[in-house]
Amino acid sequence: MEERNRSASLRRALTVLDHVRAHPGLTLTQLAEAVGLSKSTVLRLTAPLIEAGLLDRDRDSGLYRLGHGALRLGQAYLDTLDLRAVAAEESHRLMAEVGETVHLVVPDHPHVVYIDKVENEASVRMASRIGSRGPVHCTAVGKAILAWQPAELLTGLVLEPRTRHTITDVERLRAELAQIRRRGYAVDDRENEPEVRCVAAPIFDHQDAVAAAVSVSGLTSRITAARVRELGPLVAAAAARISSKLGSTTR
């Protein structure tokens, strides 16, 4: 019974902590009403959180906010993150779901660098290699990243025609990036390789800045124009789950 009571108290304390995280600057009365507990219970639950530095209560106003201990915990968590490790589970899950090659890339403007690859052994293997680079303007992963970067990055960008489908007009590329932001995913429709289509979505870090992109690639015989519309939301959802694991609040 005592252990069960401790667990219940811990859960309630965590509820209080999470509510202060989402709604900083509450008084004791406001916090108690928000979490459905008495003021005396909130005082009891917050005392050890304040001692540990996870919460702070202003001496003059009495308002609650996160303490410096929360920052230390957050930084310790971020220090343990490795993008490839964080994305691995979702990349394999996405590959199993769609049956096509999944890539993970990071920006190196005006290129992207492929840092991981998950292939479906039953399908045609993609020629991409981990460590190789691709152009930012005509790959889906590149455009997914570029769509959330400052507009100035387009200035001076060389739009080399890789195939007859490559976008080589900067205004047309601007319009394409705006469309990517609206729908949440990018498409390379034979723009980098003549027989390959690719669908990609951006990955955001704990500062909600674009840090990477994940994609699904395959031959046009397998990834038809109609299938692109099915894959887009799936890739975007995978990217959102990876972003969440990295600490992003972007939805």
Give the secondary structure arrangement, pairings included.
Layout: H1 2-22, H2 28-35, H3 39-51, E1 55-57, E2 64-66, H4 68-79, H5 83-98, E3 101-108, E4 111-118, E5 133-135, H6 140-146, H7 170-183, E6 186-189, E7 196-204, E8 210-219, H8 225-245
Antiparallel strand pairs: 1-2, 3-4, 3-8, 4-5, 6-7, 7-8
Pfam families: HTH_IclR, IclR_C
Domain IclR-ED: 69-248
Keywords: DNA-binding, Transcription, Transcription regulation
- Briefly, what CATH class of the largest domain? Alpha Beta
Number of DSSP strands? 8
- How are helices and strands ordered from N to C? HHHEEHHEEEHHEEEH
- Residue ranges: pLDDT <50 for 5 or more in a row? none
How much helical structure, as a percent, in the residues? 40-55%
CATH architecture of the largest domain: 2-Layer Sandwich
Specify the biggest β-sheet: 6 strands, antiparallel
Number of helices: 8
**SSE-based structural type:** alpha+beta
Termini separation comes to: 41 Å
Strand percentage lies at 15-25%
Radius of gyration: 23 Å
CATH fold title of the largest domain: Beta-Lactamase
CA-based shape = elongated
According to CATH, the homologous superfamily of the largest domain is GAF domain
Mean pLDDT across residues: 90
